[in-house]
Every structure is written in C-alpha cells, then in structure tokens.
Amino acid sequence: MDKIIDHDFRDRPDNIDSSGQRKWINAKQPKGKWYRRRNMVGYILLVFLVVAPLLKISGHPFMLLDVLNRKFFLFGQMIFTEDTYILALLMATIVVCIVLFTVVFGRLWCGWACPQTLFLELVYRKIEFLFEGNGRKGNKKLKKSEISQVRMLAKHAVYIVVSIFFTNVFLMWFIGPDQLMKIMGGPISENLAGFLMMIALSAFYYWVYAYFREQICTLFCPYGRMQGVLLDNNSISIIYDYKRGEPRNPKITEGGDCINCRQCIAVCPTGIDIRNGSQLECIHCAACIDECNLVMKKINKPYNLIRYDSFQGIESGKRSFLNARSIAYTGVLVVLVVILGFTVGRRTTIDVTLWRAQGTLYQQLDSETYSNIYQVMFLNKGNEPLELTLRLLDSPAGEITIAGDQVVLPANGKLKEAMIIKLKKSVLTGKETECKIGLFSGDQLKETITTNFLGP
Ligand code: SF4
Ligand code: SF4
What pLDDT sits at residue 288? Predict the structure, then answer.
C-alpha cells in the first residue's frame, strides 16, 4: 500500500516540488451540489462587495471606510471616532465568533466566504476555464503547447480588466463612488497620486490572482496556520472516510471503496490529497466531495466517501459539538454579545463635551453676578439636523449664553461653541458649585451635562 500513498505531504506544501520549485496547480472544474451552493453564496457576497459602497440611506453612504478623512459609515450609520470603543468590541466579538465557529465547524470561512477564495475560484479560475478549457480532465494535464498564445494573451487581458475593476471597487469602499467618479472624470495630472495608486493596486491584484494564487493560503494566511490549535477531533471538517476507503485499490471489487482514481486531487485548488488527513493547505472548498461523489456514482458505491464530518464521527460514528473548548468560547461570546448589545443600546445620537476655556477661572460681572467661560463640542450622530437649546436645570438664579440662542447641528456633524454661564452670588455653594445643564430639542430633554462653576 505504501506505493500508492504519497508521504511527501509531510515535508512541504503540495505546490512545491522536491527541488523547491513551484508546481503550478491546474485544478479541474468541480461539478456537483457543493460547487453549486458555494457559487451561489460566493456570488451573493461578490455582489454585496460591488453594490454596498454604491448604496445610500437618507443621502448617506451605506458603507464607507474613509480612513484619510476619518469618516466611517456602517450600514448607513456614521461611526465617529468617539464610537471606536464600539468598533473595538465588535471586532473582539467577531474574532471570538470566528474562533468558536472554527472549533465547531472547521474552516467553513475559507471555502465559502474568504475574499481570496471567492476571487480566485469564482472569478479568475472561471476566466481560466473559459480560455484554457477545463484544466485537468481526469488525470490528463493540459500541455502548454495545447493553449494558443492568442488565448493566453486574451486571458491575461481579461485578468487585467477584472483587476482594474475590483481595484476600483475597493477604492470605492475607501473614498466613496462620488470621489472615485470625480477622480476618473478629471485630468490625470490633477489626481496623479490617486491614479498611480490605482495602477499599483491593480498590478498587485493582477499579480496575486494571475501568478501567486493559492500560495496566499498555503504560505501566508495566518488563519490557516491557526487550525492546528483550533481544530480537535470533534471539529467538523472535510474528511476522507479512511475506514470505508482503505485499503484503496483500483480494482472496484477488491479492497476499500477508494479506487485511487486521484480525481479528488485533480479537482483540488491547492493540489493536496485529502486522503492524507487534515492539512493546513486544505481550504475546505468541498470540491473533492463533489468529485468523489461522481466517482462513487460511476462505480455504484455509496456517496460521501469524502464528506463534512469530524474525526470522531469517522472513528465512532458519534458527533458531538459539546466539549470544554466550545462551551468556554460560547460563554465568552455570550458575555461579549451582551456587553455589545448594552453598549449599542446606550449609544446616544448626541454627544456633548464641555471644558473650561483655557486660562480662565471666574469673572465678576457686578457685585451680585459671576460668570465662567466654557468651550462646548456638540456631536450629532443622527441622519437629521438638530436645533438645540441649553438651559440650567437646577440653578434658577443664573443663565446660559451661547452664540445665537440656539445651536443648529448638521446631520452627522460636529460644532464647537463658546458658552458662558452666569450665576448669582446667592446660589454659589463655595469655590465650586455643581451645575446641571439640560440640552433640549424643542421641549424634549436630550442630554444632561454636569459641570462645576468656579466662584470666589
Ligand atoms: S476521488 Fe474518491 S475514489 Fe478517487 S481517489 Fe479520491 S477518495 Fe479515492
Ligand atoms: S482537499 Fe478538498 S476541500 Fe480541501 S482544498 Fe482540496 S478540494 Fe478543497
């Protein structure tokens, strides 16, 4: 049996040969229910990627990550720098969610939602199939000479156009469609830096998907390398049923169900042999399940010799998601989700920050009245403009003066104003008197701010 089992996989990735040279992977196009499902999910995600930055809600971007101008919109809601703690919480929740998901369901993310897989398998690989035909029909590799130079050039021309398109889609996420159109419509000399950046990004994007390809997953992806610590015997992954398949034997009537046809390898985008067990190069794309099922159909054996299952499931036939790790991660996730929900629930649409004007203590206006000068920063996180007034809540013997009697706050905007509080000597309680200030929109109290009024 050793003759038909390849042990090289323990020494190096399958896309590198014994001399250290890269082996080009010409994966065969899969056919089957998992491929159809994956295409459906993948294309929905790609459509979201292209359409989301174009959408607007009440005139505001649905998605925008404008790092340069520190303007972020998520699902139509503006995220201010003051809300970064919510983003940090959200990131922590997503990380724990991915870890938990990986512990239970393995690398579902890699095969079904990772942008690298979506672009390579659903976009660039399909262009390759279009111009070069189906990479490997069975075990037969397409020779270079079988592909005309014209077809190769045409394929790379389409690669370049697609790379420029997706680079512009990415730019839209960061600068918005209006700005992108402005740059594209204007003369290059006016936007030279932006133009050069677009060319450089497109070239990088083209290089990744035309040449570097699956090496991103097999050599660089940190998530792939975490699998060794995240997965255990109960984790669901794509697994070969060695109990049913071994001893593999090309004769259908002898040995196990695996006939060593190597179709599962031919279809694999990272070129690995899933029969060697769980490997970090496996992106869980499920192509080998589909391909092996086609073989099983032909030789009239039960489906799912390769399937979604756990090592424990193959060994004992019993599957269990519950173990100390999945319970612990679930506990952490629940706590994070509760904190996140509580924090988002308490998020107000108005933020007010008040501080004493630099270098001032108090001013005596007449024998009975003192004043303090403040700076106030108003922040409107809502999509509607607001007209606000400020009133002293529990100091009737005083008044607030602010430039104009009303503060008009633009939607998703900030405003900084100087503010003066005047209090009668009779209401001062010492060197510091606590003042409560109400922020009203019409008669509705929106926010209460507390500050100390300095006196003699
Ligand atoms: S496709 Fe199935 S039968 Fe063929 S080698 Fe792979 S596991 Fe064995
Ligand atoms: S072994 Fe199977 S699931 Fe893993 S990458 Fe290859 S084809 Fe996809």
Answer: 95
User: Ligand 1 in contact with 238 (CB < 6 A)?
Assistant: no
Give me the long-range contacts of 343-346 (CB less than 8 A, separation at least 24).
Answer: 343/85, 343/86, 343/89, 344/86
By most ligand atoms within 8 Å of CB, the mutation choice from 125, 284, 289, 292 for ligand 2 is: 284
3: pLDDT strictly greater than 90: no
- pLDDT confidence tier of residue 135, bands split at 50, 70 and 90: low
Distance (angstroms) between ligand 1 centre and the Cα of 259 equals: 6
Residue 196: pLDDT above 80?
Answer: yes
Nearest CA to ligand 2 atom 4: 282
Report the amino acid identity of residue 413. Answer: G
User: Looking at the chain, which residues constitute the CATH 2.60.40.10 domain(s)?
Assistant: 350-454
Instruction: State the Cα–Cα distance between residues 406 and 388, nearest whole angstrom.
Output: 6
CATH number for domain 350-454, candidates 3.40.50.1240, 3.30.530.20, 2.40.128.20, 2.60.40.10: 2.60.40.10
Region of poorest pLDDT, from 6-20, 56-70, 153-167: 6-20
* pLDDT class of 405 with cuts at 50, 70, 90: low
- Nearest protein CA to atom 2 of ligand 2, as residue: 288
Q: Give the span between the Cα atoms of 176 and 288, in whole angstroms.
A: 40
Ligand 2 pocket (Cβ < 6 Å) reads 238, 267-270, 272, 274, 282-288
